[in-house]
Amino acid sequence: MAAPDISPSVSGAEEALLPADLLEFLGCATPHAWVDWALANPELLLIDHAQCEKKAASTAMSLLYRYVSEPLLLTKMSQLAREELLHFEQVVNLMSARGIAYRHLSASRYAEGLRRHVRTQEPDRLVDILIIGAFIEARSCERFACLIPHLDEVLAKFYRSLVKSEGRHYEDYLMLAQHLAPSPIEDRVAFFAERERELIVTPDTEFRFHSGVPA
Description:
- By secondary structure, this protein is mainly α.
- It has a single domain, classed as Up-down Bundle (Ferritin), CATH 1.20.1260.10.
- It has 9 helices and 2 strands.
- A two-stranded parallel sheet has the order 1-2.
- Helix 5 packs antiparallel against helix 8 (about 155-180), helix 7 runs antiparallel to helix 8 and helix 7 (about 125-145) packs across helix 9.
């Protein structure tokens, strides 16, 4: 069996859709092999996309409840939760129009692979969660851009709109991490960039929106 193509899949045209600093923030670009895997699993792509939007809203809500003394975080997470739930509704409606039933899928290794490195003491715990949130949103944004050239007009238009919102979410998470950290976060960002890169370029057994390359 041939080795999966892990060369980057974002072209100059797709790069133009992305915030200028986003690709630099990520430790690698999405490999071509993942894009091919996604296009071979269009139903799973949409189902797991919907699930990711729901999880993103849940994460924002949990931060709202846990960190009640941080006004800027409360404002940003409230906005983010509403927007992620709207995206969830939009994906479910797209699925319905295409005859795809929403169902539960097992989680990918991606988020847990990042969260296992979260420090336990505050405020380090919150800072790590926010940095991870920035990576999840940045990767989502980058993957939408990778997929857009290969999609039908309706889905491509929708994903193009999501590139803007996910890019804004990435910026908000990173800004909050910088704002709430007691010291510079560059070393911690570099640490999670390497962990995230490992999850993206190594083989995975199940396709998901944030999976690595096919095993």
